[in-house]
Design brief:
114 residues, four-stranded antiparallel β-sheet, 11 strands
């Protein structure tokens, strides 16, 4: 069955960096576009970034452009989110999502605080 397992979240100071990983299994990863979303308490879940099957095309929400980078390794069946220059407003639970199967990972918590 489809599985998505996120990791890499944690507590980081403003201006710091984190790299999130999402390990996929149970489906043909190399033919599936992937997305990252985030959800903060009291806020609607927000789309953050998308990547095409080959990784050539990436799109981002305006608030993270220039700071976050989405990438993938089809051999490792994994998608990543490199987050730099983190801000307190980036604090949220980050979710990996595969639109093809409408399936979400369990999420990983990111907290940006001094």
């Amino acid at each position: 069955q489809v599985q998505l397992v996120e990791s890499g979240g944690g507590l980081v100071q403003p201006g710091g960096s984190l790299r999130l990983s999402c390990a996929a299994s149970g489906f043909d990863f190399s033919t599936s576009g992937m997305r990252w979303y985030r959800g903060a308490p009291g806020k609607e879940r927000e789309w953050v970034a998308s990547i095409s099957t080959t990784g050539v095309q990436q799109t981002y929400v305006d608030s993270v452009k220039g700071r976050f980078t989405i990438s993938r390794d089809n051999a490792k069946q994994s998608v990543y989110l490199q987050m730099n220059t983190l801000k307190p407003e980036d604090s949220a639970v980050y979710y990996c999502y595969v639109p093809r199967f409408n399936f979400w990972g369990q999420g990983t918590q990111v907290t940006v605080s001094s």
